[in-house]
Design goal:
- This protein is an all-alpha fold.
- Helix content is about 75%, strand content about 0%.
């Protein structure tokens, strides 16, 4: 039997080797466990920050779209040469959302900076809510442009009955985007709420 030929030193060497192997396994498991914990912590902290910014963005969008404004809001817009007073009033009214965005833009900038960091942690599909929120802002600005430059100035101009009906529908559709709670349900609020729900589901996977 081969074991009978082993010396006491050999036995000690075997025990020592086994001990080294066990220690190495424990160390590797410990490092792996630490990495998993560190990764989870990073994802948790990132999720917390992103959720906070999405919630803040939702509130900022409400303030941007508020139907209540002061008499001087929109007046920072640069007027065109020879712009008529009535046109100035309409364009300034539409420009309100741009002024308000300037006051609220920090939260959107912070959120944008985390977009690709979030994708690295949660995958490509995780940035869809970021893009959806960007599209909401773009639609608000587009509605403001259409109202100030097309639909409001056309009010009171000569149109056929069909033209009036089409004009009023498009104007109201854009006003529903431009102003908060213009209609029920509010189309922008509905989209923002869905975006919040989607980002919450992604963060739950942390």
């Amino acid at each position: 039997m081969i074991f009978l030929c082993l010396t006491i030193k050999d036995y000690f060497d075997i025990v020592e080797s086994v001990g080294v192997i066990v220690t190495s396994i424990v160390a590797i498991w410990g490092i792996d466990s630490w990495r998993r914990e560190a990764k989870w912590k990073r994802r948790y902290e990132l999720s917390e920050e992103v959720l906070y910014l999405f919630y803040s963005s939702a509130e900022s969008i409400k303030r941007i779209r508020s139907p209540y404004s002061s008499i001087n809001e929109g007046s920072t817009r640069e007027k065109a040469p020879n712009e008529r007073e009535e046109i100035t009033e309409l364009l300034n009214r539409a420009y309100v959302v741009y002024e308000r965005y300037e006051k609220e833009k920090d939260v959107f900038i912070q959120l944008s900076k985390l977009k690709y960091k979030f994708r690295a942690a949660f995958g490509q599909e995780s940035i869809v809510p970021f893009e959806d929120l960007d599209n909401v802002l773009k639609d608000i600005f587009l509605a403001a442009h259409k109202l100030g430059n097309v639909y409001w100035p056309r009010q009171g101009t000569k149109m056929s009955d069909d033209e009036i009906n089409r004009h009023l529908k498009k104007m109201r559709d854009n006003q529903a985007i431009f102003w908060l709670n213009m209609v029920d349900p509010d189309p922008i609020e509905k989209r923002v709420n869905q975006i919040i729900e989607n980002i919450e589901k992604i963060c739950e996977k942390k």
